[in-house]
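Pipeline run #58 for the internal structure catalog. This entry was flagged by the ingest filter as a single-chain record with no existing model, so it goes straight to prediction. Upstream metadata was stripped on purpose; only the residue string is passed forward. Reviewer on rotation: M.T. Logging verbosity set to normal.
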Amino acid sequence: MAQLDVLIRNAKIVDGTGSPWRYGEIALRGERIVEVGSPGALSGSDAAEVVDARGKVVCPGFIDIQSHSIVPLMIDGRCLSKITQGVTTEIMGEGSTPAPFGGRIEKALSEGIYGERLTEWVERAKQWHRFGDWLSAMVEVGVSPNVGSFLGAGTLREYAMGLEMRAPTGDELAQMRRVMAEAMEDGAFGPSYALIYPPDAYAETEEIIAVCKEAARRGGLYITHIRSEGDAILDAVDEAIRIGREGGLPVEIYHLKAAGRRNWDTMHRVVEKIDAARARGLDVTADMYPYAASGTGLSSVLPPWAAAEGKLFDRLEDPVQRAEIKAEAMRPGGRWEAMVDQHGEEGVMPIGFQQEVNKPYVGLRLSEIARQRGQDWFDAVCDLLLSERQRISTIYFSMSEENVAMQLGLPWIKVSTDAGGHDPAWAQAYGPIHPRGYGTYPRVLGQYVREQKRLGLEEAIHKMSAAVAQRLSLADRGVLMRGMQADIAMFDEDEIGDRATFEAPHQLSVGVQDVWVNGVRVVRDGIHTGATPGQVVRPNG
């Protein structure tokens, strides 16, 4: 054997396949794993570096199928809160992507609260006329994890028809299908629809099926934040299944959950529905994060039509239109997700305040904020949104711990974060976030494997690595095997755990000692090395 770059010895190997762990050695050369052998089988005399993994688990790096690291990676390519969990691949794209730019898209990049740090990227993004331009630019600048993405359907729709709340014309639909086809050529995994958020929420089922057929011709996957996770969840799952069946492609449901106490018992019917579809030969699976609270914008408590044409703030300032929005928000009907109605004012906790005058509200529930302001919840929400001129990141305490634990055991469930990668050193300045961005994978391994024994170690790692790679058709990642890319995590199974909480979220997890991405060590003894070896990942590669 030619000289090795790295030989990992005395490892408790969990290879990602779900097979029982075994002691052994792993040899790396360049970007690849060149051998996985039994203890003492590989010679270390010709290795540039020998790593003693005694007492540690060595497994494939984790693949996050629902990452929101688009902007965080532009700010800081290290992706610290993810890499230190053992995440080696970030798959982005829920609802929106920064490419392709053109058509009727007016802003090249949604700036949000990080706007002052994105000036250079906003200009750079104006040149991303094809989907692949963005991912290539990220790697050129340097990122620690591998990166890949679905095509955000909100971006696709805005490209063809702006933010209008209507069905597309024939020409507009043809343009969407053309852009979808181009994105697939560039390596997109398929279309991603976030159907509770504008403009995705404006798309009817038939429109989605037409786009999906274009992706299906090129082996794509339909991934979706379904239209309802609450009262209409069964109908929403039916819609997702129909789209997969008529569109001719597999279906992945983002962060599967039954939201709102009155819907918790419905999760068993959701599972039965998905199991029945799978028994009929339909390829339907899902992913989830291990928390009983979700996170999205405060604007999500309003009906989606309020944001049509990008005029949310204009409508909230207009007394007549505001009254119309209030009438529906207070007495919701139709098929939009009425978050306050489902969770109650006490189940909604806005946290993403940027204006100093509003920061005393951080950590308070919406009911408390409204009481302090002497308003009902609706007017408090509207005035806060107008004050901040942004979506205001919000925690919704909506799920049951029993369902979370039950779902983790389902054979077709994978683990994801629904979050971006941050460094507490700069992220704290922007206020609290959902702790899942810091703690998802160590939380599964610490709480649900080690402490509660809800999952076996091998099963949990499979749900974080090989199962995701298989879903995405990443043929050379997700498993510790000869010839695979050397994306590897090493952790102490007695120590690994999350530290981030809802009250103090900006805390890195503990227990992950070393991480390699494409054969390059990006974490050594728990400390990021500064290396940025991430590559663009595409289906079948």
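catalog note: Residues 302-396 form one domain.
catalog note: The mean pLDDT is 95.
status: ready for reviewer M.T.
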